[in-house]
């Protein structure tokens, strides 16, 4: 893992972000229809559309719009949302914070639940417990988020039935208990798929390590079973789990789009969907940029962690 | 084959897959009703003798709609994955075989494209193209391409140094012959395994796009769209959400289990 | 049918009588209980409040927000008649060309500055300026001159006589802004408010919640009763209804037809259905085949089972329509003859028109709101028997607006109820209507509508509008299959929540919470 490699990876990320934004920008502006038409909707008259296009600078050619957008970014100015007339940094910033809280809650829950489940399944391999955990994880991966979310809503948040609020958001600094109540169902929906991935990964690695000479040697040395598992097996099984978790961040970033829509969570996914529906280009660009950057960086970090944990992996 | 079927997940996976593929091939033929036909007097009913799985908000027979939607839903998964796999594998094989600057350029670009999460990537492409089933299919294929290319490349790299390839090179065979006859067949299994599992992702992404209003459009009987149209009515007839939801899960589970079992069978090292 | 409609009308009128008619200062004489001041009303809605710019907002949840924040010269009551708002009274000249509006004394904006005739003039000039996107321009474009006679008197001179001007001035997008706000940067109107309405803006977070607080200086003394109103966004309808039913929300702004029975049946919930002239229409371009032939249009009209459509698409919460753009609520609406579902005759008519083998055609529907595609899919099934082979293509709303709307040959429209006959016809049907998308362009019809506009005599108007409707029904420029009821619901402790059949009027200043 040389410094040169790191710099090259980072440069590649920046290059790709530039290409992605340019492509999104060009194609969105070339297509018929624009934010002005969407804002005015069916009550638009040609006059009003033309006036609004002038006001939003949509009457300029797309490459000029792109260049001024890039120039703005270099000055730290991401522009103004066409639809909401608010600075993009404000619209996206708040949403990012909300999404991050949701995603991190889901991730933490997954780590707390999935790793013990995986360990349990590996230790009880071939038993009913293993089978049950396996079935549960398979089901988790096979249900799309919108189905899971709907089921949770019907069974855990229906009026007079469920103990949980059916969507909505309370900021944790206003009311921590309220935040916790509201975050449970969306985080559970997001977590279910990850739970399956991570627990299966831990189970499979753990089984492999348990069968290895190294563990056999530890057992022959007469170490207690508990010590064999917690000190020798588990740490060696975790590296691949780290890799899976970092890859799953990509899942999370996609998953929030559906989950936030259903549970009325005011996050990035909602902002993105709304911006896409309304051709709100500055917002689309900022969200794409942000999500792609998070994903690319988390991949890079996971590569670094894996290289550190597993000396066999080498990066030129 | 017998070894393959000895694992329970392979048996379950194969059974589900056969079921789903049967529905996809013959579903529209065996559907008891016209899937679009209204029965205004039998709206939102539970399962009964005349409507085995119940009816939706227009009184359309759910069983017929599921059966007629199977080809669209499954074909979406299979075709989008196939396109992604073929294009991705070609790119990956080219990168793996050529090495040098071609390889590193391709890999840099792929690394970059992989920086955009699947669903986000698909969403962007679909919005840009304007929604609809064909565009969604294309979008999923495009989104799958970089990942498949990466897998194909590493499969090729691992085969490239094997003895039989070296032998072919020593015999003086042409590059095309070596790739076509020696490298590709031997690099195929990880690609096939990955592709099978990806079909289940593709089906789920397709359904999610249908749910978000960007994939299949009414009056299509694509399963994701069926869930999203029926959600309003779920308190009055839970069946019209549960049935297509379970169908999606069955299809995804079938491909997923089958793919996993295939991997275990082809790669004994990982068969735990 | 007729009898049924009459009962419905009685229901509306009954509703208007028992509910408080805002602005008429009934002083709660009719209300059973004395309103209690205080409390916060939580309203749920499912579409974003993307802007608070009163000049061009059009979202279903933006309307109640600007209705609470701003006031107009006049306002439409639940009875569909103009009532006093900023203008206490008004008079028209005999030729209906000059109108004088008298403002209330001592009205102030939320920032404390006085609201005078100058602000009214500035607002109307902005609405009429082609450089400013303003949704009310199409109903006010007959204004020739507007001037401030003194701080509380506004004189409006029209280019052509128009007796219904006080209805146009009640347009939800014609509410009065301050002159200073109009002179400032226009983007600020999207996120900040300085109005004269019963509530002031406190928090604007379009992704989650908009909070309004009581305007202590509202021009009707003693109102509003509520301390605050919070508008919460729930993009998912299932989540919205669950939150309403478990008491997290007090009012559900719009109830879906699918959920209405369930919600109405829940204990303590007051669910309301208000018959409205909101309709779905099928646009058929008449300057090209096959809809150039009136027989084809008539055949399609006969191929739609309208009562069944009301049952399956609206869950019975609406009324069948028979191609008249005017619902029975309109003053001059005629008795529209029913069109029975008769695919056999339709098939014959198609053969006469030269299509013995039927017609294969694509019907386009936007995916927002879902009712467009639902009606399209139902029409496809119903018209099959008559020989129409309709292929429904649903597309995203942005693609629809850009490629199909006002351009396509055969597509689904969806319109809210307009305040007047004149507004309805000039929206869609006259040759120079704002959204003339059929190519019908009938000179005789244009003349009738224009004559009716300039007439102040009620009977003469009735006659002219009747002739115009007969002409429309003779040619079937549009197919209008259903009128949709407006559905809303309020929780146990909410008193006097009402909405009007016209979108845009909510009278929240009368609402109070009956909490022990």
TrEMBL record, chain A:
PROSITE patterns: ABC_TM1. The keyword GTP-binding does not apply. It comes from the Bacteria. It is a multi-pass membrane protein. This is Peptide/nickel transport system permease protein. Belongs to the binding-protein-dependent transport system permease family. Pfam families: BPD_transp_1 (PF00528), BPD_transp_1_N (PF19300). InterPro entries: BPD_transp_1_N, MetI-like, MetI-like_sf. It comes from Arboricoccus pini. Keywords: Cell membrane, Membrane, Transmembrane, Transmembrane helix, Transport. It is found in: Cell membrane. Residues 96-302 form the ABC transmembrane type-1 domain. The chain crosses the membrane at residues 100-123, 135-156, 176-196, 237-263, 283-306. Its main location: membrane. The keyword Zinc-finger does not apply. One of its GO terms (molecular function) is dipeptide transmembrane transporter activity. One of its GO terms (cellular component) is plasma membrane.
TrEMBL record, chain B:
GO terms for cellular component: plasma membrane. One of its GO terms (biological process) is transmembrane transport. Pfam families: BPD_transp_1, OppC_N. It comes from the Bacteria. InterPro entries: BP-dependent_transpt_permease (IPR050366), MetI-like (IPR000515), MetI-like_sf (IPR035906), OppC_N (IPR025966). The chain crosses the membrane at residues 12-31, 74-97, 109-129, 135-152, 195-216, 236-259. The keyword Disulfide bond does not apply. It is found in: Cell membrane. Its main location: membrane. It is a multi-pass membrane protein. The keyword Protease does not apply. Residues 70-259 form the ABC transmembrane type-1 domain. Keywords: Cell membrane, Membrane, Transmembrane, Transmembrane helix, Transport. Belongs to the binding-protein-dependent transport system permease family. This is Peptide/nickel transport system permease protein.
UniProtKB/TrEMBL annotation, chain C:
Residues 82-432 form the Solute-binding protein family domain. InterPro entries: Peptide/Ni-bd (IPR030678), SBP_5 (IPR039424), SBP_5_dom (IPR000914). It is found in: Periplasm. One of its GO terms (molecular function) is peptide transmembrane transporter activity. GO terms for biological process: peptide transport. Its main location: periplasm. GO terms for cellular component: ATP-binding cassette (ABC) transporter complex; outer membrane-bounded periplasmic space. Belongs to the bacterial solute-binding protein 5 family. This is Peptide/nickel transport system substrate-binding protein. It comes from Arboricoccus pini.
